[in-house]
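INFO  loader      accepted 1 record
INFO  loader      residues=134
INFO  predictor   begin
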Amino acid sequence: MVMLEGDDMNKKLLSWLVICLCFLFESSCAAKPCDPSEARKFFSFDVEFSSPLTVEEAEKRTMVNMNKDGKSTMVPFGAFNNEWNDLKANYEKNGGCIIYFITEKRSWESFSGRAGYLLIKDGKVIGSIVTEMN
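INFO  predictor   done
INFO  writer      dumping tokens
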């Protein structure tokens, strides 16, 4: 197929138009892969989210001394280590962002508090671990 100069110019103009529209309507054109806004609907209280964490950061924050087979060892996520390994495998396979969440103080005062970690991809929650609740 032979490209005419006019067709080439039209394609360039169309490309620029699409780019300009994406700047104007950023939320519909650019995926916000780590945006936890979608997760808010799962909570009946306000919730705070961390910025994205690396696997190492999440593990460092959650190290627990566990007694296994008479030996004391530090394990990420303690009793939730198997769940963490599943979430980590999902993250390593599919990508996304690991984010810490904690519900507001009022939720803890009314025995409905929650804290833990979410795996978010393309703005959707694809995995979670609740590490604290009352």
